[in-house]
Amino acid sequence: MNEGTSFIGQEAAWQEWLSAIRSERMHHAWLLAGAKGLGKRAFARAAAAELVRNDEKPVHSELHPDIHILQHLPANDDEAKKKAEGKAYQTKRNITVDQVREMIRRLATKPTMGARRAIVIDPADDMEKGAVNALLKALEEPPAGTYFLLVTHQPGRLLPTIRSRCRVLRFSALAPDQIEAMIQREAPEADAASRAAAIAAAQGAPGVALDIVEHDLGAMHSLMMRILRNGDADFVLRGGLADEMGARPARDRQLAALELARAVLVQELREAPRARQLRIIEAHGVLTKLGTQAPTYNFDAGLLIMEIGGLLASVAMPREAAR
């Protein structure tokens, strides 16, 4: 496997990809579909590298001239400079139509180093409307030797005409023991509370589990669960969440807290009565919207964590009175 990548729990998907590469009539467009955090991003890059490799030498997907990766660009010139310096940077909200059009212009020429070329769009969910329409034209009449890999967390957000032209490669959630083994290998220094929180909240997604461990969100997970169980009429637990978040947290920590809150709501949804399920779904929708805005909006960290705590309290057992 290229780039030193292994995919815990996704071996079947990798074998399906290898079989397709070896077949005489490989489909030209693929949807890499599954929940966020299952490793689709790394898989897409390794799959593209395997596709274009024509000898025994390893291929680096970010550098190979026949692999084109469309992803969120830096938000502005200052953020582009941070990216060039290897620093954390903010991105644009969408993959733009200009990015897709530039990719299509490149397709007018033949692959540089072999007979195949890979186009990775990550995530395809976040394309602008114009970008989707431009991509559809390319999928309808793909140049010979060109293969598309569309990473998608929510396939239903894509146009049916896009989905119908793609072969779906599904990514499965990992079992708790697989998540635990992954944490022990990737983050052996994690304490018991963080490991337990990661396994409980990840819902089988290793990327989510590693975020929880990396940002030491074990105590935050405990507070979130207490709010869901008991409410927070006196705001004490929300104050605890704010303390755990910290005064000036990195953006990655804020995003990890949002993902954790979404995960605990999904976990809670499974056992809740129908009337409460509707409230949980509504709160989850608000968190999802915040999650799409947080990478580019300059949220105040204290207000954000209080908003998260308030959404959890609004679906608590018993329901906290609206404030």
Automatic annotation (TrEMBL):
Native source organism of the sequence: Novosphingobium panipatense
Lineage, top ranks: Bacteria, Pseudomonadati, Pseudomonadota, Alphaproteobacteria, Sphingomonadales
Protein name per the record: DNA polymerase III, delta prime subunit
InterPro entries reported in the protein's UniProt record: DNA_Rep/Repair_Clamp_Loader, P-loop_NTPase
Spans through the membrane: none
Coiled coil (UniProt feature): none
Cross-referenced Pfam families: DNA_pol3_delta2
